[in-house]
């Protein structure tokens, strides 16, 4: 223990010290432990961050990863409108758009010479359920649902460009998951939070059927049953309490313990936008984000934990000192269409700040290295050969493929 660590440790309350000691010893933390940690300030917060870094180093070493991707916003039409969202549009909006197959393919092909290996599809949820115009458009494209069209576009990109699709279409039925499974290396759905309170009138998820926590948990569980490598996470600052953040992390932990399929957990900060119902909202502070990341690391010690660097452009290196080990998808080609005001960092810049913090930056694929090591059903056999062609024996992208 360094002099600084000893000084911090000696100023902690006995129950806080005991909680951190159990985390370091590898014991599962209880909900009340998480609640206690989420209240950390001052010396307690400093000790929490140090402990989270220690636990991250033990499980993940000093490697931070990212995926080089293109972002494909297949449609911004959506059946719901969250209080913080500017992505979702209605058919009458001049910015409403569903991409044609040619547009999808053009984006994917633009990514190939830039070294992209992931095609991340994001789209509004089930717009055909609300808008007859969408049903007509889908019929013209030869599909009855947006999920069916998504499946066709994933297959098109996979076959024509070799990029590995990662789809985020919202809640899905078992049949829809099966439809998408064979043409996606991985998939995702942000839990955001387990609090049903956020769906009440005036809440950020009011009248958003797809944001019911039970429904989202059902989709994540079904993905686990079907062995789909899965991304999920929390959206911080939408009105949840610190305790509800802990409850959400523990719900994710329980699902992963059951199925082993959650390959990463994102801790994402709300970015307030002027043309939304939550335009007067207060964004979470950097300290609040770092505290939540650190608690996530101690509750989920072996998990890949990510925070998007473009959403905290001046301070994202500090997330490494709170326990993350991944930066998520970074695109040298396309914008973050969910947060268009927040450009991705340059990959050379990302490498520089990662190394300055004492870490090595490595490129990964849309499926994490640990899922590539075993023939356990998580890697589609139809994708295995192209995945192996890109990766080394540790499951990272081969160094000769990396842009530097």
Protein described:
By secondary structure, this protein is of the alpha/beta class. It has one domain (60-401): Aldolase class I (TIM Barrel, Alpha-Beta Barrel), CATH 3.20.20.70. Helix 11 (286-299) links the parallel strand 6 and strand 7 (305-306). 39% of the residues lie in helices and 13% in strands. The protein is globular and about 70 Å long. Strands 1, 2, 3, 4, 5, 6, 7, 8 and 9 form a 9-stranded parallel beta sheet that branches. The longest helix has 19 residues, at 42-60.
Q: What topology emerges from the helices and strands here?
A:
Elements (H helix, E strand, L loop, with lengths): L2 H8 L3 H11 L6 H8 L3 H19 L2 E13 L25 H11 L6 E6 L8 H10 L4 H16 L2 E5 L5 H8 L4 E3 L24 H13 L4 E7 L5 H18 L2 E8 L16 H14 L5 E2 L19 E5 L16 H10 L3 E5 L16 H10 L14
Structure in a nutshell:
By secondary structure, this protein is an alpha/beta fold. Helices cover 39% and strands 13% of the residues. Strands 1, 2, 3, 4, 5, 6, 7, 8 and 9 form a nine-stranded parallel sheet that branches.
Order of helices and strands: HHHHEHEHHEHEHEHEHEEHEH
Q: What is the count of helical runs? A: 13
**Based on DSSP secondary structure assignment, what is the total number of beta strands?**
9
Which spans of ≥5 residues are poorly predicted at pLDDT below 50? Answer: none
Known CATH architecture? Alpha-Beta Barrel
Strand % is 5-15%
First and last CA, distance: 36 Å
Sheet having the most strands: 9 strands, parallel
């Amino acid at each position: 223990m360094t002099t600084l660590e000893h000084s911090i440790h000696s100023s902690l309350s006995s129950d806080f010290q005991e909680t951190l000691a159990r985390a370091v010893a590898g014991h599962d933390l209880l909900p009340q432990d998480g609640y206690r940690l989420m209240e950390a300030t001052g010396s307690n917060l400093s000790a929490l961050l140090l402990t989270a870094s220690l636990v991250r180093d033990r499980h993940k070493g000093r490697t931070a990863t990212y995926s080089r991707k293109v972002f494909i916003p297949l449609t911004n039409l959506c059946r719901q409108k969250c209080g913080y969202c500017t992505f979702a549009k209605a058919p009458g909006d001049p910015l409403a758009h569903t991409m044609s197959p040619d547009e999808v393919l053009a984006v994917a092909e633009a990514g190939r010479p830039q070294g992209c290996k992931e095609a991340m599809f994001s789209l509004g949820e089930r717009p055909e359920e609300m808008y007859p115009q969408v049903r007509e458009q889908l019929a013209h494209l030869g599909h009855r649902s947006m999920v069916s069209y998504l499946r066709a576009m994933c297959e098109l990109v996979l076959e024509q460009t070799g990029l590995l699709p990662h789809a985020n279409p919202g809640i899905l039925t078992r049949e829809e998951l099966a439809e998408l499974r064979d043409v996606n290396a991985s998939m995702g759905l942000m839990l955001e939070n387990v609090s049903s309170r956020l769906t009440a009138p005036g809440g950020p998820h009011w009248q958003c059927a797809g944001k019911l926590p039970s429904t989202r948990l059902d989709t994540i569980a079904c993905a686990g049953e079907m062995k789909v490598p899965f991304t999920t996470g929390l959206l911080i600052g939408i009105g949840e309490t610190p305790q509800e953040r802990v409850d959400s992390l523990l719900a994710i932990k329980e699902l992963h313990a059951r199925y082993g399929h959650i390959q990463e957990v994102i801790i994402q900060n709300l970015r307030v936008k002027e043309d939304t119902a939550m335009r007067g909202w207060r964004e979470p502070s950097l300290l609040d984000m770092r505290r939540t990341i650190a608690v996530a690391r101690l509750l989920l010690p072996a998990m890949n934990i990510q925070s998007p660097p473009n959403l905290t452009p001046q301070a994202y290196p500090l997330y490494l000192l709170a326990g993350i080990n991944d930066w998520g998808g970074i695109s040298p080609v396309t914008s973050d269409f969910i947060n268009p005001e927040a450009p991705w960092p340059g990959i050379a810049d990302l490498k520089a700040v990662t190394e300055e913090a004492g870490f090595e930056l490595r490129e990964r694929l849309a499926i994490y290295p640990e899922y590539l090591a075993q023939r356990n059903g998580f890697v589609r056999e139809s994708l295995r050969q192209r995945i192996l062609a890109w990766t080394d024996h540790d499951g990272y992208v081969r160094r000769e493929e990396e842009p530097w």
